[in-house]
Specification:
One of its GO terms (molecular function) is serine-type endopeptidase activity. By secondary structure, the chain is an alpha+beta fold. 40% of the residues lie in helices and 23% in strands. The protein is elongated.
């Protein structure tokens, strides 16, 4: 706790320009090497800016109240009402006061607009958890459901409330998704591309980086084959082609694009910005490069910019796995050093990974 308080104090001194040149240089180096610190700096700067804007607006309101109190408007109206020519004299005598009052009014309006605009901008970060509704299925899907036995999550007669995407981290049933997808869940099920559903439990939550690790606990689950992909630890560059597989509807949907920025919303260094069209339900889906390496987890999009999505970097998936006690994992999670997807075209890559990507259904 003490270290956190000291860090907050250093961040504030840094933003207010109170650090010496040597201290500033050292702290900026720390920001580069520690994304968590950089994230705190960005958040604290927004807080200080908002506080300053509020203070400026409050000060303007006080000045306007004072100026208004010094003007006896009733006496002026009564004195000059019968004589329109007096209005001209009143303007000449009091034009300075009127000008100041008008300036205060304009600045106040501008400040209020600025605060509202900034609030709106910060509200454009939209997580991609899907709210599931009872939508009428297509005729083909209805025919398939009539010809196949119904598959329903045990113990749930009602439809799931929220949905998202997750993907396998181990062959024995550990999955990765976003924390916001499973937040406030009473129970969670996952469904594979064949329609088989399994109950899962949450074994790790990280609200700060929006990551959750799930474990399939259903007795009917059979271990998967060796994972066809690996997590890429190193960052990738702008312009690299990427793709994701997710469940914005009941069938898996492919999204393709490229890395448009090495940082996410508001300069967040824990994320990439990618030019991929995503929709509610894509949250928690894997982000892969052309070689089939997982480089991140789809988490949100900019709802006022077409095709601007955000993905948490794969580094934080590894940190989440390392935070889970080894005895809980059963055995050490080891990803293949050789990527089986490398060299395959996109269609073949998807054929190999689709069995490892799941639809997540949240009940609460």
């Amino acid at each position: 706790m003490r270290n956190e308080i000291e860090l907050e104090a250093i961040i504030e001194d840094y933003l207010l320009g109170k650090l010496s040149p040597e201290e500033k240089e050292g702290f900026e180096l720390l920001r580069v090497n520690d994304p968590a610190v950089d994230h705190k700096v960005v958040a604290h700067k927004f807080f200080l800016d908002s506080l300053k804007q509020y203070g400026d607006m409050h000060s303007l309101i006080q000045k306007m109240d004072k100026a208004h109190a010094e003007m006896d408007m009733e006496s002026l109206i009564e004195e000059y009402k019968p004589h329109p020519s007096y209005i001209v004299n009143m303007w000449r005598k009091n034009k300075s006061a009127f000008a100041i009052a008008a300036s205060f009014l304009l600045i106040s309006i501008f400040s209020i607009y600025s605060i509202q605009h900034n609030t709106k901008q910060n509200g454009t970060y939209e997580v991609m958890r899907r709210e599931i509704t009872n939508i009428k299925n297509s005729q083909n899907k209805l025919v398939r459901s009539l010809n196949a036995p119904a598959k329903q999550e045990k113990g749930h007669l009602n439809a799931a409330k929220f949905g998202g995407t997750g993907f396998a981290l181990t062959a024995n049933g550990y999955l990765c998704t976003n924390f916001h997808v499973i937040r406030d869940a009473d129970s969670i099920y996952v469904q594979n591309n064949k329609g088989d559903s399994y109950k899962v439990k949450v074994v790790y939550r990280d609200p700060q980086y929006d990551i959750a690790i799930l474990k399939i606990i259903d007795e009917s689950f059979s271990p998967l084959a060796t994972l066809p992909y690996k997590l890429k630890k190193n960052a990738i560059g702008m312009g690299e082609n990427v793709y994701t597989l997710g469940f914005p509807k009941d069938d898996a949907v492919l999204g393709e694009g490229y890395v448009s920025s090495r940082t996410g919303h508001g300069g967040d260094t824990t994320q990439y910005q990618v030019s991929i069209p995503i929709n509610p339900g894509n949250s928690g889906g894997p982000l892969l490069d052309n070689q089939g390496n997982i480089i991140g987890v789809i988490t949100a999009k900019e709802n006022q910019v077409e095709g601007a999505a955000f993905a948490i970097k794969s580094k934080y998936i590894l940190e989440a796995l390392n935070a889970i006690p080894q005895d809980s994992l059963g055995k050490k999670v080891a990803f293949s050093k050789k990527n089986p997807l490398q060299g395959l075209n996109r269609t073949r890559q998807i054929e190999k990974i689709e069995d490892y990507v799941y639809m997540i259904k949240v009940y609460n």
